[in-house]
Amino acid sequence: MSSNKPKLLVTALSATPFSGSEPGKAFNWTLALSKFFEVHVLLLPDKVDGCRESGLCGEWIFHPLDLDGPTKGGIPFYIWYAKWCHAVIAKSQELLAKQSYVGLHHPVLGSFRMFPRYDCLGIRYSLGPLGGGETTPQGLLKDSGFPLLTQAIEFARPMANNLSVMMPAVRSVVGKASKVLVTTNETEMVIQRAGALETAIVFPDVVDVSGNSRTEIMASRRAQASGLGKRFRLVFSGRSLWWKGGSVAVRFLDRLIRADVDASLEVFGDGPALASWRDLAGKLSIPTNRISFHGMVERPRLLEAYASSHLFVYPTLHDSSSSAIPEAYSTALPSMTLFCGGARTACLPEAGLNFTPHSWEEFFERGVEEVRRWIYDPELWLECCRSALDLSSRFCLEMIEHAVEKELVPVFRI
């Protein structure tokens, strides 16, 4: 199938429809690109059928790579990833020998440490949205309560990022890109140190906010407002990794209880830090009727938890992006974040308590003060609810299409 749109190569490591993972992001960005270009997608063979079956890719032209997908994580994955990089260049050269393209876009997110050598293809190309340059605010590491090894890794992260972009191959690919999209200002600074000339910050996720009407959502929140002081409900959702901040949510609950606020916390997530978070709740003597731990649950169950809660406590320290925040906002649930990394891109200060503290003490003190203000004057909480709901409507495919039109279409204009 051919169209009158300009032809663009798209090198998606993996593209999976209706997914919140990085393959889902790559799929959505490729879908947005297809509105403006005839996309020729270089994809692993086992991902092609899933795209076709979605019913959304009728105009995509697939070029499966001669490569099976990865079978292991860790170091074996990076060995495989190097093979993928070589396969992408070989396939691109093969296609470029047969017909003309206006350029190439690399939509794989989450990494700037290794790229296919696009700089050797002789065509224009763009990258991203890339993430991974985010780091834990150094002032918060000392009293984080993280295990020593985790603290050491977080402390070394800025150095590792800077060393990565000093590698000649990375500098060459980034420096010769016509445009590099990034998810946060932290990654933008790292990419600029690699020599990127043109950058732009964009939010990479599409979040389904369909459901009840705004009127119904706010009516439900108003019905909750009078009960804020009876039981103030916190919720945390995310992978149980130390830097995701679940332990901080537990400590905040403890501070509220010690400040005589009738509060509770639901934790949704699985991972290696979960047992330690449970142990922390025990060491703080938090009553079992004030805290509950759930595994990963289906999205409808999570949205129910958001709808019945009063504050989404999500103190992630260095996410590249976060679809969890827009999902919470879609239920008019305010957030409490460290306002750094992907959280800064996803939220606004007025949609809850979103700020970067100088210390954990400041974070907890301001949090307790704000919750008390909301309990005393529920209208203040409802204003945050309205701001959160307003913001949730921005995280849609149309937002990505607008970013493509503004940031990428001019790159490949003939």
Describe the structure in your own words.
The chain has helices at 22-33, 45-53, 74-96, 148-164, 168-175, 185-193, 214-225, 246-258, 274-283, 299-308, 324-329, 342-346, 360-376, 378-392, 397-408, and strands at residues 7-11, 38-43, 61-64, 103-106, 125-130, 179-182, 199-201, 232-237, 263-268, 291-294, 311-313, 335-337, 352-354. The chain is α/β, with parallel strands linked by helices and 414 residues long. The strands form two sheets. It has a seven-stranded parallel β-sheet with strand order 3-2-1-4-5-6-7. Strand 2, helix 2 (45-53) and strand 3 (61-64) form a beta-alpha-beta unit. Helix 1 packs across helix 15, helix 8 packs parallel to helix 9 and helix 8 (246-258) packs across helix 13. 44% of the residues are buried.
Blueprint (SSEs and pairs):
Elements: E1 7-11, H1 22-33, E2 38-43, H2 45-53, E3 61-64, H3 74-96, E4 103-106, E5 125-130, H4 148-164, H5 168-175, E6 179-182, H6 185-193, E7 199-201, H7 214-225, E8 232-237, H8 246-258, E9 263-268, H9 274-283, E10 291-294, H10 299-308, E11 311-313, H11 324-329, E12 335-337, H12 342-346, E13 352-354, H13 360-376, H14 378-392, H15 397-408
Parallel strand pairs: 1-2, 1-4, 2-3, 4-5, 5-6, 6-7, 8-9, 8-11, 9-10, 11-12, 12-13
